Amino acid sequence: MPTVDAAALAREFLAELGRQDWDRLDRLCRPDYVHHAPRVARASLAEYRQVATAMFSAFPDMTVRVEQLVPAGEWVTARYVATGTQTGPFHGIPPTGRTVSLSVLALLRLSGDLFAEGWFEFDSGELVERLTQAAAGAGPARS
């Protein structure tokens, strides 16, 4: 059972993710942290960092806004919105200039005072579809 405020630690985790403070994220997670997400079946923290860095390269102004945190024992459920403007290539889609928001549901598991595992769910297909439409000529639009 965690000996820390799990919701506060999850808020910090998401804030550091939004700031891309990988050194701090490393200190919030166990060395054997496992990350699960669409298109990333199972990844170490280092592997997840590569995926997230590519995302932030495509959306350099991305922000993370926490909407809700629900702690339950060693788990914290987090609902947040990531918003950014695509100014770089993403999954083969050229920059569109389109600002998009993505709702994310995350389950974070603590082991002791550190995160051991994270499950992140979002509709990556919808994101790719919106960007593909924008690249095909729909132009920059907020969604």
TrEMBL record:
Taxonomic lineage of the native organism: Bacteria, Bacillati, Actinomycetota, Actinomycetes, Nakamurellales
GO BP terms: polyketide metabolic process
Signal peptide interval: none
Matching SUPFAM superfamilies: NTF2-like (SSF54427)
Name the UniProt record assigns to this protein: Ester cyclase
Coiled coil location: none
